[in-house]
Amino acid sequence: MTDSQIAVALVSGGLDSFVSAARARADGYRLLALSVDYNQRHHVELAAARRIAQALGAERHVVLPLDLSQFGGSALTADIDVPKDGVGEDIPVTYVPARNTIFLSLALGWAEAAGARDLYIGVNALDYSGYPDCRPEFVEGFEKLAELATKAGVEGAPFRIRAPLQFMSKADIVQEGMRLGLDLGLSWSCYDPAPGGLHCGLCDSCRLRSKGFEEAGVPDPTRYAETAG
């Protein structure tokens, strides 16, 4: 499969990656979907990723095993409690060291092998938890790295890192999902799933998700174990 109209989209199973991948389809690209099984505590998100890849008609969906729990350093990959007291200003313990750098590197390898030049990632720099690898500077820096690090880039066929949600609030992202006709209930956001297939309702990701639906004026399809007061 070699075609410049193919895009590789990182699909975690979350709301943002769903809308980002859907934008790739709306932009006219055939879709290769990449998810990473990094032994995350919210492993249930991979089932959501499979639902999303199918709903978007991905030509191929790869769930790549890469056990980042061997490194630890995050509440998502080690025995560290997920914070439940609200979104703070500091980088939280749910930050996974270099996660987006690792994931984009994997997507870049697949893109070069497939002849694709566009990589879609659902990062945004407004309503997020303060992760350094969601900033515009990171996206721009990785795009430059991709040019330097690949045969295609050196030979004058650079890669484009598409971050269509970069400057959207979570409410904007919900509204964009509705504009694209998506069933946002297919996605999963919670970092610390509750029994019965429920979102916990209190982790940073749940709070941001709930706030996004509320501010967008869109009914939230998510089932939460608790709601933040």
Automatic annotation (TrEMBL):
<keyword id="KW-0671">Queuosine biosynthesis</keyword>
<feature type="binding site">
    <location>
        <position position="203"/>
    </location>
    <ligand>
        <name>Zn(2+)</name>
    </ligand>
</feature>
<keyword id="KW-0479">Metal-binding</keyword>
<keyword id="KW-0862">Zinc</keyword>
<dbReference type="GO" id="GO:0005524">
    <property type="term" value="F:ATP binding"/>
</dbReference>
<dbReference type="InterPro" id="IPR014729">
    <property type="entry name" value="Rossmann-like_a/b/a_fold"/>
</dbReference>
<dbReference type="GO" id="GO:0008616">
    <property type="term" value="P:tRNA queuosine(34) biosynthetic process"/>
</dbReference>
<comment type="function">
    <text>Catalyzes the ATP-dependent conversion of 7-carboxy-7-deazaguanine (CDG) to 7-cyano-7-deazaguanine (preQ(0)).</text>
</comment>
<dbReference type="GO" id="GO:0008270">
    <property type="term" value="F:zinc ion binding"/>
</dbReference>
<keyword id="KW-0067">ATP-binding</keyword>
<dbReference type="GO" id="GO:0016879">
    <property type="term" value="F:ligase activity, forming carbon-nitrogen bonds"/>
</dbReference>
<comment type="pathway">
    <text>Purine metabolism; 7-cyano-7-deazaguanine biosynthesis.</text>
</comment>
<feature type="binding site">
    <location>
        <position position="206"/>
    </location>
    <ligand>
        <name>Zn(2+)</name>
    </ligand>
</feature>
<keyword id="KW-0547">Nucleotide-binding</keyword>
<feature type="binding site">
    <location>
        <begin position="11"/>
        <end position="21"/>
    </location>
    <ligand>
        <name>ATP</name>
    </ligand>
</feature>
<keyword id="KW-0436">Ligase</keyword>
<feature type="binding site">
    <location>
        <position position="200"/>
    </location>
    <ligand>
        <name>Zn(2+)</name>
    </ligand>
</feature>
<dbReference type="InterPro" id="IPR018317">
    <property type="entry name" value="QueC"/>
</dbReference>
<comment type="similarity">
    <text>Belongs to the QueC family.</text>
</comment>
<protein>
    <recommendedName>
        <fullName>7-cyano-7-deazaguanine synthase</fullName>
        <ecNumber>6.3.4.20</ecNumber>
    </recommendedName>
</protein>
<dbReference type="Pfam" id="PF06508">
    <property type="entry name" value="QueC"/>
</dbReference>
<feature type="binding site">
    <location>
        <position position="190"/>
    </location>
    <ligand>
        <name>Zn(2+)</name>
    </ligand>
</feature>
